[in-house]
Design a protein that fits this description.
heterodimer, A: 338 residues, alpha/beta, TIM Barrel, 10 strands, 42% helix, globular, B: 233 residues, Methyltransferase, Methionine Synthase (B12-binding Domains), Chain A, domain 1, Rossmann fold, 9 helices, 58% helix, 9% strand
Chain lengths: 338, 233
């Protein structure tokens, strides 16, 4: 299947994705707790500014403002019926900016988690999840997205349900998970697990990887974990610009443009082919990242020590791969399990 | 494993049964936990004993392995669900017998924030540890925390936030407590993915809790100190 992203991947060793959506919109006046997706209708110029910020800073790919545009998230704002419409609007504005850029730009339709926990542990059924992802996917498709971009997922069940929903919409996709708990996702998925997961899906993603989580160092350890599995699938790295710090009633991410430039080059050395930022990554960070990726040579795969030296310490000792994992409790036996 | 090997809970002596209940909580087996609770009650155990020795004991193991990165959210939710099954039997009995609770907590996600997975997990683990938990849900303004804490005579106020934009609201709640001169009446615990210890200190919370297991440990420690102070005073 040919699409704007696969074409760019054929001719480029690496591509740059965008930075933060939330942090940028909050700086433009979005109130805490307000759904950013409403702005696709009411503040379209600000959404244009958001998209242009990424494109003008050198991004080859940017994500639409539709992270929470699914029925389950929108329900919290009494807008559960608007998932299709708000997704379509997000992609339409993006299409307009991409087409006016004067170079090939990929519009990636952002799809975030439902926020619900899936059965049997939680309440959301597979069928309902597929339906929600399908609805958002159709909206993004109608608005002109080139690919869909699943992000910040923690449960493998949800990743698979999204893949199924995207298949129903006939859309190519990429999908990243968030590794924020001792090197794993909240639901316990390791980097090695995710390679198996992404590689084993019938409607396979074009690329897979990690976004958000804790700091940039942790994210690169996860990317090294992906690469160690010897996967051929392109790897995505979208890390946060440092760690949120509190100053005079406001929060800002402590990662400087210089740090994110180092992060971008290291991400490429770790094996990532699509490199961007997440929370806290502003246009000035993206410009520094682009410049570094263009001017600095590709190096050898870095050691963990080198990552710590450049970007700071990890948030946990291990990442759940290899032999460093403590065993589960030894049970008494006799009980038939599973 | 053959059918004959399957465990019959009623044939175990008390110690073995409690050990088996620890395993069954760890594995999230709700029906088995309910059966175990009923057997212990049938043998004349006090409801408070069943709670503390069997359920709290088992959830402590789950909490430690969660803290140490051995168990993750799905396993903890299953364990908490099994624990709740046992609690449903014990709650009315505990009320009847006037059993002591180790403390009361008001918990909620702050104003502007609609995320609740972590907050729910803390609530469940706190219940599992024997605390009484009043869950305010999501998107809570100052009044929700303070009115409920005052009305219910809570020991602990717990606040959660997942967004960097909603984190600062925790300080609004704490500052309001200070203004009203009631800050020292409560232990204030904060948590959520983007938070850290430095932030907890900066806003004047008693402690930042990295996860649900740490929240339980911290709450126990602070409640014990508070009780000691009350005795001394």
């Amino acid at each position: 299947m040919t699409n704007a992203l696969s074409k760019l991947l054929e001719t480029n060793d690496w591509l740059m994705a965008d930075g933060a959506t939330g942090t940028n919109l909050f700086n433009m006046g979005l109130g805490a707790g307000d759904p950013p997706e409403f702005w696709n209708e009411t503040e379209t110029d600000k959404i244009r500014t958001l998209y242009r910020g990424a494109v003008d800073s050198g991004s080859d790919i940017f994500l639409t403002n539709s992270f929470g545009a699914n029925a389950s998230r929108l329900k919290l704002h009494n807008a559960q019926a608007r998932a299709f419409e708000l997704s379509r609007l997000a992609a339409e504005i993006a299409r307009e900016i991409a087409d006016g850029a004067g170079r090939p730009i990929v519009v990636a339709g952002s799809v975030g988690p439902t926020g619900d926990i899936m059965q049997p542990v939680g309440t959301l059924s597979h069928a309902d999840a597929v339906e929600m992802f399908h609805e958002t996917a159709e909206g993004l498709k109608a608005g002109g997205a080139d690919v869909l971009w699943l992000e910040t997922i923690s449960a493998p069940e949800e990743y698979r349900a999204a893949a199924e929903g995207f298949k129903l919409a006939g859309m190519p996709w990429c999908g990243t998970m968030s590794f924020d708990t001792a090197g794993r996702t909240m639901m316990g998925v390791t980097s090695a697990d995710m390679v198996q997961l992404a590689g084993g899906i019938e409607n396979a993603p074009l690329a897979f990887g990690a976004n958000c989580g804790t700091g940039a160092s942790d994210l690169l350890r996860t990317v090294l974990g992906f690469a160690a599995q010897g996967t051929e699938m392109p790897i995505i790295a979208k890390g946060n610009a440092g760690i949120p710090k509190y100053h005079d009633g406001h929060i800002h991410y402590d990662g400087t443009p210089e740090l994110m430039a180092d992060y971008a080059v290291l991400a490429r050395d770790c094996g990532a082919r699509i490199i961007g930022g997440c929370c806290g990554t502003m246009p000035e960070h993206l410009r520094a990242m682009r410049e570094a990726l263009e001017t600095r040579p590709k190096g050898d795969r870095p050691t963990l020590e080198k990552i710590v030296q450049a970007l700071g310490p990890f948030s946990s000792e291990g990442d759940g791969t290899g032999d460093d994992t403590a065993p589960k409790r030894e049970r008494r036996g006799g009980r038939r399990r599973g | 494993m053959s059918e004959e090997d399957d465990i019959i809970l009623s044939e175990l002596d008390d110690d073995e049964l409690v050990q088996q209940m620890f395993d069954d909580l760890y594995d999230g087996l709700k029906e088995e936990i309910q059966e175990g609770v009923n057997i212990l009650l049938g043998r004349g155990w006090q409801p408070y004993e069943v709670l503390t020795k069997a359920l709290v004991g088992g959830m402590t193991i789950v909490g430690k392995d969660f803290r140490d990165g051995i168990l993750f959210v799905p396993e903890v939710l299953l364990a908490a669900n099994a624990m709740k099954g046992g609690m449903a039997i014990l709650k009315p009995l505990l009320a009847e017998t006037g059993a002591p609770t180790i403390g009361k907590m008001v918990i909620g996600t702050v104003k502007g924030d609609i995320h609740d997975i972590g907050k729910n997990l803390v609530g469940m683990m706190m219940e599992g540890a024997g605390f009484e938990v009043l869950d305010l849900g999501i998107n809570n303004p100052v009044e929700n925390y303070l009115d409920t804490a005052e009305r219910e005579g809570a020991d602990i106020v717990g606040m959660s936030a997942l967004l960097t934009t909603t984190m600062p609201y925790m300080k609004v709640v704490i500052d309001t407590m200070i203004e009203r001169g009631i800050r020292d009446n409560y232990i204030v615990l904060v948590g959520g993915a983007p938070l850290n210890e430095e932030f907890g200190k900066a806003i004047g919370a008693d402690a930042y809790c990295r996860d649900a297991a740490v929240a339980v440990e911290t709450a126990k420690e602070y409640v014990a100190r508070k009780h000691n102070r009350a005795k001394a005073g």
